[in-house]
Design brief:
This protein starts with a strand and ends with a helix. The protein is an alpha/beta fold. The protein has 11 helices and 11 strands. The relative contact order is 0.14. Helix 9 crosses helix 10. The chain binds zinc ion.
Length: 323
């Protein structure tokens, strides 16, 4: 497994923060929102940060919990700054689940405060076995994109079962049963992924994306992963990064490159124009898609707002573009 990283990145003010805020404001009316339930319906109130974490908690909690995800589709968690509504939702939650390993880079101090204030706050990534995690750009960093490896994501099931059971002990058996079903379904997803990805020949297994979000995917499924930006979108790509990427794509005859739903496509569009290599599609790196879209596999429709739909979408786009 070889990871190529371009090191000459320009440190600067992140350009996406403003657009994320605008997108979020536009979403407040009807993108899920972070409001607490209007009345006590007997369910426990749980807040999750990313769309993937919210989906996992919903799958395991079933009808015992009202789960609110703070970040919507297309939202970049690296740059996400919590809004007053989010803070009030977290303040009313029995349980807060976040992805962790500094993915939610602007929320660290707030999550710590929530924990100090007595909320049960659980990080998925920080609860995983350290030896299964990938080092980041610097020695003290860990790559936070662990959901790219389906079996590693599946290890989060027991973390969520335990967290829900901690705040709702009467539901332990129900959470455990649902957790077993989710684990089995993720095992089937992994088996499907491996079989589907066999269509891509070894020489064409190069995944070129905007930011370095597919390291775990590459390790699990045998792809060389190359990105213009590092593991966080907080550091913007500089001219030298783009030039290196253009040279790399030409030298290695990369069949297609990819844009990401939560990152501006500008740089990858430029690489595509300058190299003549097509954009193979839009991948969901750090956020799922919406519930209005679905990925159909063997006649079964998977909403792209779910982890299953997100991964099936990504794998189908990768196979179609690189096979
Ligand atoms: Zn990321």
């Amino acid at each position: 497994m070889h990871f190529l990283r371009f090191l000459s990145r320009r440190r600067g003010v992140p350009g996406l923060a403003g657009s994320v805020a605008v997108l979020w404001m536009a979403c407040l009316g009807g993108c899920g929102g972070s409001q607490k339930p209007a009345q006590d319906d007997g369910r426990i109130f749980v807040v999750a940060t990313t769309t993937m974490a919210a989906d996992l908690v919903r799958e395991i909690a079933g009808d015992r919990a009202h789960v609110v995800g703070l970040m919507g589709p297309g939202i970049d968690p690296h740059m996400y700054r919590p809004l007053p509504n989010d803070i009030s939702a977290m303040g009313g939650a029995r349980l807060i689940v976040y992805s962790g390993l500094h993915l939610e880079g602007k929320m660290g101090s707030l999550l710590e405060k929530m924990s100090r204030d007595g909320r049960h706050v659980v990080s998925l990534g920080d609860s995983l076995p350290k030896e299964k995690l990938i080092s980041g750009d610097n020695a003290d960093e860990i790559d936070p994109h662990f959901w790219g490896d389906i079996l590693l994501w599946s290890e989060c099931v027991s973390i969520v079962v335990e967290a829900l059971s901690h705040v709702d002990p009467d539901g332990r058996d129900a959470y455990s049963l649902r957790g077993d079903a989710v684990r089995a379904s993720l095992g089937e997803l992994d088996t499907w992924a491996r079989a589907r990805l066999e269509a891509v020949p070894a020489a064409r297994r190069i995944l070129v994306t905007s930011h370095d979000a597919f390291g775990y995917f590459g390790r699990a499924y045998g792809f060389e992963v190359v990105a213009v930006q590092g593991i966080s979108t907080a550091t913007e790509a500089g001219l030298a990064d783009v030039t290196h990427m253009i040279d790399f794509v030409k030298e290695r005859s990369v069949p297609a490159i990819f844009v990401e739903s939560s990152v501006s496509p500008a740089i990858m569009n430029r690489v595509s124009t300058d190299t003549g290599v097509k954009i193979g599609g839009e991948l969901f790196s750090d956020a799922t898609g919406t519930s209005e879209e679905s990925e159909v596999v063997d006649g079964v429709s998977w909403p792209k707002s779910s982890y299953q739909g997100m991964m099936r979408h990504n794998i189908n786009r990768i196979v179609e573009a690189l096979q």
